[in-house]
Amino acid sequence: MNSTIQTILNHRSIRKFRSEAISSEQLQTIIQAGLAASSSSMLQVVSIVRVTNLEKRKRLAQYAGNQAYVESAAEFLVFCIDYQRHISINPNVQADFTELTLIGAVDSGIMAQNCLLAAESMGLGGVYIGGLRNNAEQVDALLELPQGSAVLFGMCLGHPDQSPEIKPRLPAHVIVHENQYEPLNLDDIQHYDQTMQSYYANRSSNQKQSTWSQDVCSKLSGESRPHILPYLNSKGLTKR
């Protein structure tokens, strides 16, 4: 197993960081790794806002659901869909198709994962912050995002001050289908629930007794940020 694969398989979300800064050389490498990511039709529809202003960091931590590590991490990057540069080139660009929003979301995820893997390969750690979408309009205003650009998620980066256990994933045979979609075997989910229940009960922090099925069913049983569609519409996205 090579070092790249080992880095991927060793991924843990890091939410506690030492006060040590990330060097400018490290940050430049992380960003260049992100820029090297695949881009659909080479549209390059992602922008990153690096937030260094401490007051803005504090407010973003609050907007994200009082996640203190947004404020304390060495670096905080916000990934955005961005068609503003294309509209600036040609005002007749039609960026309001849902397909183009999907492209922006997919490309942002690919770019961000490149950034995180690059950071982890240097001994750094990080965590994604989807909670920014809890208050997308406030985040948007704080970062002064133009029309055609919309916030997706943030990323904390820094020197880890914790070493959490690796969280078990669903087994590959549940995720990977061959030639056609296969019906779910609930016995596989029951076994995975037992694995996750043991993991949750025995991990070094934030112990709990719930299963994966209970957690995801609770998450999916109610509204999920219903304000996001009107927010995207207000930015000239996902209108048709």
Explain this structure:
This protein has 240 residues and is an alpha+beta fold. The protein has 2 domains: 3-164 and 222-234, NADH Oxidase, CATH 3.40.109.10; 172-212, no CATH class. Helices cover 45% and strands 12% of the residues. The chain is built from 11 helices and 4 strands, in the order H-H-E-H-H-E-H-H-E-H-E-H-H-H-H. The protein has a 4-stranded antiparallel β-sheet with strand order 1-2-4-3, sandwiched between helices. Helix 2 (24-35) runs antiparallel to helix 6 (98-121). This is Oxygen-insensitive NADPH nitroreductase. Residues 8-159 form the Nitroreductase domain. It comes from Vibrio alfacsensis. Keywords: Flavoprotein, FMN, NADP, Oxidoreductase. InterPro entries: Flavin_OxRdtase_Frp, Nitroreductase, Nitroreductase-like.
